Amino acid sequence: MSQQGYVAAPPYSQAQPGMGGYQGGFGAGPAQPLYGHYGGPPQAFNAPCLTCVAPGPMQSPPPPISSVAQQPFQTSPPPAMGQPQMPPGPQSPHMSPPQSPQANMHMAGPPMAGQSMAGPPMAGQSMAGPPMAGQSMAGPPMAGQSMAGPPMAGQSMAGPPMAGQSMAGPPMAGQSMAGPPMAGQSMAGPPMAGQSMAGPPMAGQSMAGPPMAGMGRPFPGPPPPGPGGFQQPGQFGGQMAGPQLGMPGAFPGAAAGMAGPPQKKLDPDSIPSTTQVIEDDQAKRGGQVFSTNMRGQAPPLVTTDFTVEDQGNASPRFMRCTTYALPCTADLAKQCQVPLATIIKPFASLPNNETPLYVVNHGETGPIRCNRCKAYMCPYMQFIEGGRRFQCGFCSCVNEVPVFYFQHLDHMGRRVDFYERPELSRGSYEFAATMDYCKNNKPPNPPAYIFMIDVSYSNIKSGLVKLICDELKTLLEDLPREDGTESSAIKVGFVTYNKVLHFYNVKSALAQPQMMVVSDTAEMFVPLLDGFLVNYQESKAVIYNLLDQIPDMFADTNESETVFAPVIQAGVEAFKAAECSGKLFIFHSSMPTAEAPGKLKNRDDKKLVNTDKEKTLFQPQKGVYEQLSKDCVAQGCCVDLFLFPSQYVDLATMADVPSHTGGSVYKYNNFQLETDGEHFLRDLRKDVEKSIGFDAIMRVRTSTGFRATDFFGAIHMNNTTDIEMAAVDCDKAVTVELKHDDTLSEETGALMQCALLYTTIGGQRRLRIHNLSLNCSSQLSELYKSCETDSLINFFAKSAYRAILNQPLKNVREILVNQTAHMLACYRKNCASPSAASQLILPDAMKVFPVYMNSLMKTAPLVGSTELSTDDRAHQRLSVMGMGVEDTQLLLYPRLIPLHNLDVGSEALPAPLRCSEERLIDSGIFLLENGHSMFLWLGQASPPDFIQNLFNLPSLAHMQGLMCALPELDNPLSKRIRSIISGLLEKRPNSMKLQIVRQKDKPEMVFRQFLVEDKGLHGGASYMDFLCYVHREIRQLLT
Ligand SMILES: [Zn+2]
Predict the structure, then answer these.
(1) Residue 371: how many other CB atoms lie within 10 Å
(2) What is the CATH number of domain 455-690?
């Protein structure tokens, strides 16, 4: 490569006529010739489709693709890299951890025998009919009863017992009913037949079903004029004065040729392949140990199997960056427009062969910190003056070493206890927190889980309520627990609701659970404290009893209206009263239309799609839910929402609280027990058993010269620095954008420390610390060499998905395309060797960036199609906000696995293919998954023996209707394929419903939208067309 001595021409970043100009001084190019290694081989891709496009306004469509020659994609071996190294640590440092390792928080205990059976029947108890209210009711009904005083803990109930209280068994003398209802609150039994009923909500459903064949459409019309001004990287703040781009899902200035007559096809193998990149990295780095002793070392790809050895920097499982070499100056950063960000997954699961985090205890005074910047003791603190002081790596402040912490230095200036102290030698570890880190200077109580089940008509009728109740009996045995403890410290509570809320007393001393009803949903409170949140093991019999009774109790309900905000409010109040944090599991079916706070109405309006008002479809309704989010975060109340809608529910609003409290939203459209039951239960099990921390607050500290400026995730920000999370589980990630405030030094690099204060599932207060050091360079080539496409696309997805809350989609799409072109043009200009303009030169580390970017723009939230359900779009938008790098990678580039040539004797998964129709063959069978959807695609000419072995059917033609599972057949092929599927389900954070589609059947269209290299079903270009378009943009930028 003849790159040395290449002198940059005058910066292209100056205003160009006809381009709307580059505003805001992206800075002059390098003042000096760029010398030295330029890292990864530039990827030359001859983009022939553009060779005859005259530079100029974008009205001119590209010429037919057939007019051009092809040239294979070129690669050359990377030159040697010279990276600064930290002194390498020993291969296996002998650590003597101060305490036992803490991590694997969910140690699922073995299920107990007989668990799935109903609890022991009580003597004299009649299980038929609504048992609670209907059972011998001693005393007058409670409704309207006037009870003085607010509900208070420990208050003993004067007056007659509640419905059900004096049921089977001896009277509960001296029973303490915490908190009687307030005056005017009606305490009613469960809904009785004959209650005013709004009929079952079946009529007029708008089916958010799959798009039908023929819905996909070509790009309409000729392309509009080119884009207007560029924006700063990653900023979607202002309105862009761009041209009007009315095309759904189209990138700005989409090539009109695409809708034209069939073109001679280019060899798709000539453009960079994601599957190849993944395979190559696996071949090169798979199975190896990645030691984190080196600053700025880019880890293997997220898709590669590797082992991490923590030697002073956080594992890439916890922190990944868009680049591992930050540009030294803000000018350089502006010039390249490559977003600088780190994606932090503080509770990431570690494989069994990696060491869990050690817990460090610095005693009563708490963790040692820098006096000035408050950074915690870490490998970046330098001990000086014989060990009496340490200089902070973040702010350079010199601090005294406390006497108890003093240690001598060895001849290299390193403390002699270096390897015995995780906080000196490791990238990630935990500190035991002192009272100073606890609310009200009191140690926290263990968290609680409240299960809140919507028992309105549709959930009862679908069998969902019974399914949940049955499952909870076994599931609760698997609540997460601290290492070394016998049972989970997590307390559990139960609520059912429709228009009113039913609370249950499941105190272990009771023979029967007791129900209390709160129908005044405007002023929600919890009518009992003692007995509401209980230890599952202690109260197991009563809980079994309750879970057996709930489905029967509401079996005859006609109530179809529900409340929602009061349900969350009730959960928060319960946690407040119990002084704990925790999680609400809400199982809900419909839009909350009952008269209560947070009542919603249908505001879905497809006419807004592709208008400037489309953003309102994504915006939550303000008011009640906004305040609820704040209340939840303040109390450490995480909300997980399991939705079972049959029509629009205003998901954007209903999911607002979950998406600000570290929660998850699961959605099962038109839930049917047979086809969706197992899918839902897998999600529920994974969710309940997840390792998780509560009542968390996270801060990212940086060394001088740059700082964290923006944050994306299922989080709440009260100020500009503290990331508040009611809970954070092993799958949630926060994406943090970094900006310069000064020049960074190549010598010292850039340091980051993420500190997460949280409450463990056992109720301990802890600080989890992740440290990461990056390189800094005044040469852009270093930055491009150290980029990570998977992290970049995570950042772009989250920033774009946030931007659509405030901006027209077309502007957001435009910014994405422009920034893509700009990043690549800057590389071409400053880092690549001179070559013909017709060649598209991509940085090695970003060579498949365009396919991800194009896929992102075709996702439901960004595509702007009236054929997509508003709730589905809002759901995907919110789900992505909390995702880590693995999840966004898989979502935007699904795995397409050929199964027809499967070697049933091999454990290896067949190599995935590129996601394009080109790769499908009539005689083939393929599995496709993206972490959220899973398909088994059967070609028309699938081998009959294959079909026989898999389905026990003589041919495809015998297949009836939609299938969602493979029969369990006793032959090697069936076993192997089912094991591949269950292996994938095991690996992903979410469950996936298997959809079996036959080639050319209608449902195949749903499958096809996941072939992301092809033209989008709802708009959006093919990968090839997008690449050609981007190339043209780059050429314009370079003119
Ligand atoms: Zn400091």
Answers:
(1) 12
(2) 3.40.50.410
